[in-house]
């Protein structure tokens, strides 16, 4: 997300008909996880998304501000450096997991091409090395029918 006068900017794949939001398929080799080390990486390129302009507009099925096709040109996230380990289980809600709090860095580039009535927009983050982490976590969880 980038910031704009309307608040945080939202680039996302939209909300599916069954209500799942902000999720899209990515190539399997784009993700690498080493749970025991609390490390993971995500590297994707050329992912089609919508420029929904704001988070409330993205979540509103009517999209009153509109939305246009955009592309995540590149997205690189690295998680590492375990600071806390937590194991949790809740039988009543069939949820359990092993959680590793750590740090993360991110670098992203996104383009919204010009379209009728719109000038287009491009966002390029600062380098990953400038990331400041408030919270990051990798985990292995089980829920629903996968609950142990």
How would you concisely characterize the structure shown here?
The protein has 148 residues and is mainly beta. The chain has one helix and nine strands; from the N terminus they run βββββαββββ. The chain has one helix at residues 55-59; strands at 3-4, 7-8, 11-12, 31-34, 39-51, 68-90, 95-112, 121-124, 136-143.
Query: In terms of per-residue confidence, which ranges show pLDDT below 50 for 5 or more consecutive residues?
Result: none
- What shape does the CA trace take? globular
User: Roughly what percent helix?
Assistant: under 10%
User: Based on DSSP secondary structure assignment, what is the total number of beta strands?
Assistant: 9
> Cα-atom Rg, whole angstroms?
18 Å
N-to-C terminal Cα separation, in Å? 36 Å
User: Per DSSP, what share of the residues sits in E-state strands of 2 or more residues?
Assistant: over 45%
Average pLDDT for all residues: 88
Order of helices and strands: EEEEEHEEEE
Quaternary arrangement of the chains shown?
A: single chain
Count of spatially separate domains:
1
């Amino acid at each position: 997300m980038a910031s704009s006068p309307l608040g945080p900017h939202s680039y996302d794949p939209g909300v599916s008909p069954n209500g799942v939001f902000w999720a899209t398929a990515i190539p399997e080799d784009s993700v690498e996880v080493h749970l025991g080390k609390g490390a993971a990486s995500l590297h994707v390129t050329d992912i089609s998304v919508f420029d929904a302009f704001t988070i409330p507009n993205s979540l509103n099925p009517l999209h009153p501000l509109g939305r246009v096709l955009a592309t995540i040109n590149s997205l690189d996230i690295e998680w590492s450096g375990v600071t806390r380990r937590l194991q949790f289980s809740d039988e009543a809600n069939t949820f359990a997991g092993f959680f590793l709090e750590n740090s993360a860095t991110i670098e992203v580039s996104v383009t919204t091409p010009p379209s009728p009535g719109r000038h287009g927009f491009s966002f390029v983050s600062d380098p990953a090395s400038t990331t400041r982490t408030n919270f990051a976590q990798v985990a292995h969880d089980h829920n629903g029918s996968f609950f142990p």
